[in-house]
Structures are given as C-alpha cells and as structure tokens.
Amino acid sequence: MAPRAVLSRIPPEIATPADYASFARERMDEAAWAWLTGGAGDGRTARRNAEAFDDLLLTARLLRDMSAAHTRLELFGRTLDHPILLAPIANHMLFHPDGELATAAAAAALGAPMVVSSQANHRIEDIAAQPGAHLWFQLYIQPDREFTAALVPRAEAAGYQALVLTADAPVGALRAGIALPAGLGPVNLAGMRSLPPHHGTPGQPPLFDSDLVAAAPTWADIVWLRGLTRLPILLKGVMTPDDAARAIDAGLDGLIVSNHGGRILDGQPATIEALPTIAEIVAKRVPILLDGGVRRGGDIFRALALGADAVLIGRAYMLALAAAGAPGVAHVIHLLRAELEATMIATGCATLSEIESFLVQR
Ligand code: FNR
Fold it and tell me: How far is residue 81 from each of residues 39, 119, 320, measured CA to CA in Å?
C-alpha cells in the first residue's frame, strides 16, 4: 500500500505533539515506523525517558508579575527566542520527500536551531541554503579520521555554528538498522572508507575482535578534534558527572545529556534522572542541553528546573514531519513553546532563569 499523502492542513484534534503519532503512522511503512519509534533491547530506557518526567510534580505560584515575561536565552553568543532545538536524526527523506530541507525551513521559521545529522540525506550545504537557518552539525569520529577531519571545515564553510560530537554510539552497526531505499543514503559521507558493519550475529567474529571496536574513538580523539576548529563543540551522550567533568577538562564547550533516545544501551536511567548530578558538577561552567522523552512544554520546564539550559526534541518533530511536512514541524515547535509559556505563567516564572529546582518535586 502506498503511503498516504501528508496532511494538507493541520486538523484541530492535533493539540499537542504526541497527537501527531497516529497521523504519522498512517503515512509510514512498518519498517520506518519501527526504526523511528524503537529503542535498544526491550525499549526500557526509551520508555523511561518519557515516563520519568511524569514523576516530577510542578509547584503552582499565584499572582506574580508576568508583564515582561519571555523565553529568551543566550547560547554560544547568540540570542535564541526559546530553548527548543531539533536533535540530529538520520534519514529525514524516509519520512518526507523534502527531508532535511523541510525540517530546516520549519526550524528557521520558528527560530529553533537544528542539529543536522551527519547521516542526513541532503548535502549540508543545501540544508544551509534555507533562508534564516541556524544550524549545528552533528558528527561521529569515524574510523576514517581523515574523512572526519575534512567534514569540520566543510561544515564551518557552510555556516554551521557549532559541532555536536555524538560519542554514545561508538559501534554504529549495533543500532537497530533500516534498509534504505535505493538512491537514499548519507550523501555527506560519500567517499568515506568504512569498516564492515557488525550485527553481533552468529557467524561473525566476536565484537571485541572486530576492527570497528579497535577504531572506536577515545578521549585522545577529543583533544584532536578540539584542535581542528574554533567552533563550539558539544559532547552528546553524557550521562554521568565523571564524563561531564572530563569533557570540560578536554576543552569542550557544552554537553548534551542524552542516551540517544534509549537506542544504544537499554537499562540506562532516563536523561532527566541523570541531569541533576551532572548539573551539580558542571556548576554552570558550560551550557547543558538535554534530550530524550521531551514531549510537552512542561517537560522542558522540568529539564530547565533541574539544570538544563535548553532541550532538544527528536521523535516528536519527526512524527510531525511524517504527518504534515514542514508545517507540522513548525507546529510542534510552536506547541511546545506555548506549553512552556503556560507552565511558566502557572508557576510564576517570568524568565527561564527563574525556573529553579524548588518548583519541581519528586
Ligand atoms: C536518532 N538520534 C541520532 N543522534 C545522533 O547524534 N545522530 C543521528 O544520526 C541520530 N539518528 C537518530 C535516528 C532516529 C530514528 C532516532 C529516533 C534518534 C538520537 C537523537 O539525536 C536524540 O538523541 C533522541 O532522538 C532524543 O530522544 P527523543 O526526543 O526522540 O525521545
């Protein structure tokens, strides 16, 4: 059965990002749905990311002055209208024919920085040509270090404003894969020398004997990457205070508390559970972003209260892309911002810096 066309107008029953799921599912084939919504192992961490927000209760405060309220923040020298960014997700063309171009247009219209995946289906230069785009580039330190190094000036020349180094998926082949249709692939990685994937299946050598593991990056590679560029570099995948401290010591400029949406190591805590002790050790030395399970503006509030400066959303905007294209992505960002504002009003917070931990109780 051919997928149904994307929504030409957004129906009124879509009142929160999660409402996009059923509309998206009708428009996606089974494999793409499973790849997008799935997690590693039994999906415990993927579920926990979202569910852990439910256990955090909010404190209402009455009658406070909101006349000058706003959601602005400063991040790496730029003023953002709100603390919502789009997380890097591979292969947007699996979900919409315009792929990353549609996402970038929506992000630009709503003032949300977009982190472009190194496994995007469009050239990073073409994505950057979207008017008003504020883009960061996500990369892995690939076994082909020379190729990795060459991506950095390329992203810089295209106008990308920060690098996001994803470090929690060193053996990429372990991730639940998807067979990409012919003609669709990671165009920005064309020409890269890659090692054979390892699926951990019988007949393959033990994972520890594979070249992939031997070539996986270490902290020494962070120092190497740091020396390649003056762009801010954020480390994505941080889940412990120890790794947070090491990243700062290595000269990195920001952290993304993330467990890859629960797609790598099933059994990890939710990111919102990992955040407080990380925020404590970081002590505002560098910005902290968080992703994983953010589905409501109230979740953004909880993350900010527990020490994040901003959040990224992943599956929430991809479902909207699949259902309604660029207008859907824009709508999700708008809804989350509106929900965040409503939460700030009800809790008496006129600015993001007033969102403090005592407003959230377990
Ligand atoms: C991802 N994620 C991801 N991360 C990354 O650094 N590079 C990538 O290419 C991808 N690709 C990707 C594909 C799909 C289908 C998913 C669901 C996720 C992880 C992503 O950036 C982010 O960490 C999570 O999606 C955040 O969790 P939520 O918001 O999806 O719950």
Answer: 32, 28, 21
Taken in order 156, 157, 158, 159, the sign of the CA dihedral is positive
CB atoms within 10 A of CB 211: 12
Q: Which of 118, 255, 260 to mutate to test the pocket of ligand 1 (most atoms within 8 A of CB)?
A: 260
Q: Which helix (H) or strand (E) holds 271?
A: helix 271-282
Which residue type does 236 have? K
Query: CA 143, 135, 28 angle in degrees (round to 5)?
Result: 80
**pLDDT tens figures, 224-261:** 999 999 999 999 999 999 999 999 999 999 999 999 99
For 43, counting Cβ atoms within 10 Å of its Cβ (0-12 exposed, 13-18 middle, 19+ buried), the class is middle
> Residue 110 C-alpha to ligand 1 middle, in angstroms?
21
Pocket perturbation via mutation, ligand 1, pick of 35, 263, 271, 313 by most ligand atoms within 8 A of CB: 263
The pTM for the full model equals 0.98
Bridge partners of residue 166, in order along the sequence: 236
Ordered DSSP codes for 101-145: HHHHHHHHHTT--EEE-TT-SS-HHHHHTSTT--EEEEE---S-H
